[in-house]
Amino acid sequence: MSNILRIILAILLPPVGVLFTVGLGAQFWINILLTIFGYIPGIVHAVWVIARRAPREA
Asked: Among 6, 13, 9, 5, which residue's Cα sits nearest to residue 39?
């Protein structure tokens, strides 16, 4: 799945973007909590995880 699609998912539903990037790990649960506490922190965290973990396309 491309980074663009993951980032779009992260804007609409932040935990889904993180789930497709790292699976059901600690980052996913952290993102769930951040999204519950505030939608914007969830988006920021999701985009950060996607940019950091997703393989670069050549």
From this structure: 13
